[in-house]
Amino acid sequence: MEPRLDAGTVERIEFDIEWPPGTAFAYLLVAEEPILVDAGSPGETGWNALASGISDAGYAPEEIEHLLVTHPHTDHAGQAATLLDAADPTVYAPVGVRARLSRDVDDLAATVRRNATAAGVPDVEAHVDRAVDSLRRNRACLPPERIDVEVAPGERFSAGDTVFEAVHVPGHQENQAAFLTDGLLFAGDAAVEPFRPAALHVGFDEGHTESIDAFYEGLSALSSVEPDVERVYPGHGPVFEDLAGAVARDRESLDSVVADCRAVVESLGVATAHEVTAERVGTLDGREYTVFESVGALARLRRQGVLDAETEEGVHRFRPA
Ligand SMILES: [Zn+2]
After folding, report:
1. Domains in the chain: boundaries
2. Averaged over 39-52, what is the pLDDT?
3. How far is the CA of 25 from the centre of ligand 1 (A)?
4. pTM for the model
5. 169-196 pLDDT, tens digit each
6. How many A from CA of 189 to the centre of ligand 1?
7. Helix locations, the chain, DSSP H
8. Is 283 helix (H, G, I), strand (E, B) or coil?
9. How far is the CA of 316 from the centre of ligand 1 (A)?
């Protein structure tokens, strides 16, 4: 074990993940009561990475007193249950995570089936299976009954003697928070340096038409705390300082998704969300999530009065208004 780091130091812990960008990060914030922000990826390699990262800071897993979870995806909450078996941290998660992880599987399946059908995707049951699998995986990583504290948007809360503000940053995931303390922003997948995180939001669950609006809302929340942020510790990619730059880039990226969806509907005359996606991104293989962004963009354009929609046999088709 290394000598202990000084209070206020952040130890960055790297995890391998199986999809791009290939790595995810959790952070150990050294304080009188050590705080872990996020818990890496699942499995034995994830645990080894977490345990050695904690040890590099001069601590043992059982000394972790607080675990803050930015959002309940497996690459960020992967070792929460394992850590809870090894130690007894107080677990903090954004409001709504407990309910989302406690979601009734049959109801989720029925909702995804209905919404995937409406989007016109050819592989409805594959979407249903992925949604159900990911719910099961997410709640195995972070059992909802083991969340001690749910933090509300904008809430200031203490973890030991460290005070955090929870910044509500939906869009990538509906119940995501970034945690701000003393100029340091632990951003999860709300702001990442080299790319805009996907607007997965809720997938095809209830609320699926809000993905793009929610992402814009999250960016506004980041803008409002930006003057207080000196350094960003993201869930992927490098630690960075230019939060305003990342927010501006993400806004532009969302603007172009919306503009592209509009242009495709105008050129095709009438189209489902799936047809818009196929036209906009080409092959969907392995990128099935891009349809969630089209659904959100098309719904936004409809709310703005730019597009009309009609429903026939459960399928939504969009056309210029
Ligand atoms: Zn992630």
Report:
1. 10-256
2. 97
3. 9
4. 0.96
5. 999 999 999 999 999 999 999 999 989 9
6. 6
7. 43-56, 74-77, 80-86, 97-101, 105-119, 124-141, 211-225, 243-268, 273-281, 290-303
8. coil
9. 30
